[in-house]
Amino acid sequence: MQFLIKAYDGKGMLDKRMEVRPRHLEGMSKLNEHIICAGGLLDDQGKM
């Protein structure tokens, strides 16, 4: 069974997102065989 998870940050959260990103990617690597596709959502200017 496949799932789609779409999550949004609050305004002004980019600094916090970048701070926790290494731990996030480490956790994702443990689930690698179960992840088909992953990525950040970008705004009209191409920024997270």
Largest sheet: none
Regions with little confidence, pLDDT below 50 for 5+ residues? none
Overall shape = globular
State the separation between the terminal residues, measured CA to CA: 28 Å
Order of helices and strands: H
> Helix content range of the residues, please?
25-40%
Number of helices: 1
Structural class of the secondary structure composition? mainly alpha
Strand content: under 5%
Overall pLDDT metric: 91
Global Rg: 12 Å
Would you write up a description of this structure?
The chain is globular and about 30 Å long. The protein has one helix at 14-30. The mean pLDDT is 91. The protein is 35% helix and 0% strand.
Write out key terms for the chains shown.
single chain; 48 residues
Structural topology:
Layout: H1 14-30
Summarize the structure.
With 48 residues, this protein is an all-alpha fold. The protein has one helix spanning 14-30.
